[in-house]
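Q: Here's a chain of 469 amino acids. Please give me its 3D structure as tokens.
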Amino acid sequence: MGTIGRLQRRESWWNRVATPALAAALLSAPAIGQAQDQAPDPSTEEAADADAAGDALNIPADVQLMTRADPNKRRATARVNGTIITGTDVDQRVALILAANQSNQISPEEEQRLRLQVLRNLIDETLQIQEARLQEIEVTPEEVDQTYNQLATERFGRTIDGMTTYLTGIGSSPASLKRQIEGELAWDRLLRRNVEPFVNVSQEEVGERFTDLEARKGTDEYRIGEIFLAATSNNRTEKLQQAQQIMEQLRGGGSFIAYARQYSQASTAAVGGDLGWIQLAQLQNPQLEQAARDLAPGQLVGPVEIPGGFSILYLIDKRQIGMADPRDAVVSLKQIAIDFPAGTTEAQAQQKAAAFAQGVAAIRGCGEADAAAVQLGAEVVTNDEIVVRSLPEALQSAMLSLNVGETTPPFGSLEDGVRVLMLCGRDDPQVASGPSRDQLMRQMEDERVNRRAQRYLRDLRRDAVVEYN
């Protein structure tokens, strides 16, 4: 299977990008998959690992620090096995996260934590690229450019120049995004050479998973995001306050994925807190089960106190196993979009957006869209294979209520421009028969590859020579 195929199977950031804001959130860390059917319980597994580590190192309970860290001293750059990560590299990745959270102002403490997390992500990315080069695994500039161009046009709905303008406008750059693409491709090829050939799943294991899924057909499944903050009796108040602050930021429009990667102490932090599709019993905690059961997709709950700390849950989606879901419909869309020139005021943008909406409303179906877009000074991007559930939550219900030839309400911003989606066709989902045995085999193989990938990356970190400036 090709590189993009493997990236799709692991549901990397490439396939989850639906809007520039979501892309920025996802780009805050390397995408490393994890098991989708076995949700780790942070109150048991993480705490047990921490206790075991403490016992092995024989660390006393009453630690007395001999020196104090200077809060005014920031180590914003690093040299990783000789490769320099500059302050500009950090700045440009931070800009992506701030754009995702639609926030230009954060507290100095928040900024410091964010920069440290971004620096850790860049170190991981550098180690992945270095390991690929050491093993003579090549990622060519042409391959990176091809993926970047595809991302710009198909996911962001922008021209290459428009993508450059967007990234530089938020304080980032095409080079920063291309470097992350290089890291993704390099890591994918490393795993295909050094991990995947040594992963085996028996037919007996597949059979057990298949029988379990058949028994659960028709029952509810939940796709849940988690942010877990470990707490002890000594720091309970501090951690509760931190969790409450995170909830306030999330309710104010902050990116759950970005906050999970930045703050969560569960193993799912690497994938933005995504537990995958689970049944509530897999949470292994009555308080979390009850809290999640009362959520509707898109809602948050927390902080919920559980043994070992506090959890914040976000219900990404909900479905019934083996049953058809309208959001699985595959639609053919035309995106019609206009941008605002630099220096456009809010009033001018509103006026231009109103004229654009009026012009779009007069278009009689997809056959007229391209010609009408020229008259409106708009660009058209066509995509014939969009799954409704991959769209942002706010657009899903609107899309399902459209007839062919109709458009969503206009959406956008002064920075992103204004756009509509026109429905050109829809293939409704059939009653789901559940995954085949071959699909289950691939899924279980991916789960094991992803677990070994996490260990692989930990080994690279342990052996690295990292100097901070």
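Q: Can you summarize the key feature?
A: DSSP finds 17 helices and eleven strands in the chain.
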